[in-house]
Amino acid sequence: MKNPVVILDFGGQYSRLIARRIRELNVWSEILPWNTPLEQLESHNPLAIVLSGGPASVYAEGAPGLPAGLLEKGWPLFGICYGMQLLVKEAGGVVQRSEKREYGVLPIEIGDSPLFDGIQRPLRALMSHSDYITQAPPGFEVIASTPSAPVAAVADGQRKIYGVQFHPEVADTGQGKKLLENFLLGICAIEPNWTMGDFISETVEAIRDQVGKESIICGLSGGVDSSVAAALVHKAVGDQLTCFFVDHGLLRLNEAEEVMDAFADRGMNLIKIDARQRFMDRLAGVDEPEAKRKIIGEQFIREFEAAAAKLGDARFLVQGTTYPDVVESGDGQSATIKSHHNVGGLPEDMEFELCEPVRELFKDEVREVGSRLGLPDSIVWRQPFPGPGLAIRVLGEVTPQRLDILRLADAIVREEIARAGLDREVWQYFAALPNVRSVGVMGDQRTYQELVAVRAVTSVDGMTADWARLPWPVLERIAHRIVNEVDNVNRIVYDITGKPPGTIEWE
Ligand code: XMP
Q: Could you say which of 167, 234, 248, 341 is catalytic?
C-alpha cells in the first residue's frame, strides 16, 4: 500500500496499538522492524515515521538504534518513549541512565505547541520508563515536563521532529489520539482519506500478485478470522481457492453443521474433512498445554497436506492470522505468551507458502472487512474460538467423555447469554473443564464429580480483557441448568480474572 505512516518497531508492547490508533484517524500505517535499511524505508514513501517504545536502554550494548541517516532524510518524525530517547541522543541531547522505573498515569505539564492544540489541561498520560532526558538537543524546544521527567516532550517545529516520553497510543492516555491527530493531520498535513474499502481493494490486488495462477487452499474454521481471510482470497482468485473445514472433534455442539450451512451458498469450494479420530489418537495421554497446541497445529497442516495432495498441487495456504496472534506468539522482539496454533505451532517442514490477508488487522477491523464483504452476521459476529478448540478448555488430558461434558455445559452458557441479549456485549463466553473434582450432595447422595468453570470476558481486541459483570440471574440460570442437564457435574464456578494477569483461555 502506498504512502503509509511507517512505525519503526523497537520492540515495545504497544507498537500495534500505535498502528491501530493511526488507522482510526483514516491514515494507513505499517509497522517495520527498527533495523529496516534506509533504502527500504524510502521505497515505502512514508508520509511520516513514528518511532515506537521499546524495552532497551539507549546505552545498553547492542541496543536497537535509528537507521543510519534517518534524521537527514527530512521525513517528519515522532518518537515515543524509547523512540524519543533515541531521537534525542542522536540529535545531541542528553539521556540520563536510571534503574528506577516511573510507571503510571500521571499529569503532564504541557506548554504551547501545535502538538497540544485542543488538548485539555492537565494532560494525563501513561509514563513507563527508566532512563529519562535531562537536556533537549540543540534546536529543540522542551514542550512538556513532569517532576521526574524534566524533558517529557520535545519539538523541532522547523523540521517536524517531535518526541514524547509518555504513551499517547494507549487508552489510558485519554487525549492521546488527539495528540497523534495533531501531529499527523495538523503538523504533517496528512489527508485522512484511507478507509477499510481501500484495505480490501489493495489486499485483493496483493493476493492476486502473490498467488498468480496457482491453487490455494484454506482451512476454514467458521471463525471470523479464517472466514474473512477466505472471503478476501475468494474475491481475489475465485475458484483457484478450495476451503477445507476440518472437523477435529474439538468443536462446540452442532458447530460443524452450522459452519457448513453458513457457507453453503457463497459459491466457494468447501470440503469437510472428518479427522476426529486422528486428532483424538494424537492427543491421547497428552496433558501439557503447549504440547497440545503444537500437536493440533501440526495435525491441521497434515490434514491440509493430505487433502491438498488429493486435489493436485496447491502451493499456498490461507491463514486467518491477526495482529494479536502475531504479537502474542512472539515476533522475535516481544515475549512469547502462548503458541497460537496458526503461528507458533506450524511445523518447520510445512510444504505451503502462507497467504495471511488479515495479518495486519485487529479483530474489530476484521469484522468490519467481513461486513463489507457481505458475510452474514452469524459469521461476522461469531465469538472468537481458538484453533485448538475445546482441547484447551478441557484442562489436562482430552478424552471423548470429558469433551462431551464440556460441549453440553458450553452450549448452555452460550444459549443463556444469547437469551439474555448479551452476546454482542460480551467478547467471549464459554465453559471450561478444569480437571477438578469435588464433593457434593444431590438427592441425599454424596457425589464426587467434575467442576465446570464459566468464563465471560469483555475486550476490544483480545489483547487485554476484563471479566464480564454478568447479571446474577443469568449466572444462576447457567449454574442451575448445567448441574441439572449435564451428567457428572456437581459444581459451577465463575472466573473473575482479567487479562492480565490471566489469559482469556485457561490453557
Ligand atoms: P488468550 O487465551 O491468549 O486468548 O488470552 C486471546 C484470544 O485468542 C484466542 N486464542 C486463539 N486463537 N488460535 C487461535 O486462533 C489459538 O491457538 C488461540 N489461543 C487463544 C482466544 O480464544 C482469545 O479470543
A: 167
230 with 286, same domain: the answer is yes
Q: Residue 17 belongs to what H/E stretch?
A: helix 15-24
Tell me whether residue 81 is one of the annotated catalytic residues: yes
| pLDDT tens column, 429-483 | 999 999 999 999 998 999 999 999 999 999 977 888 999 999 999 999 999 999 9
Which domain, by its residues, includes 345? 196-380
> In this structure, is residue 65 part of a structural domain?
yes
What is the CATH number for 162?
3.40.50.880
The residue count of the chain comes to: 507
Give the residue whose CA is nearest to atom 7 of ligand 1: 462
For 77, the grid coordinates are: 518524525
Q: How many domains does the chain have?
A: 3
Which residue of 327, 505, 506, 507 sits with most ligand 1 atoms within 8 Å of its CB, as the best mutation to test the pocket? 505
Contacts of 496 (CB under 8 A, 6+ apart): 467
Q: Is 167 noted as a catalytic residue in this protein?
A: yes
Does residue 99 have an active-site annotation?
A: no
Phi, psi of 94 (to 5 degrees): -120, 125
Judge whether 505 lies within some domain. no
Q: Which residue puts its alpha carbon closest to atom 6 of ligand 1? A: 462
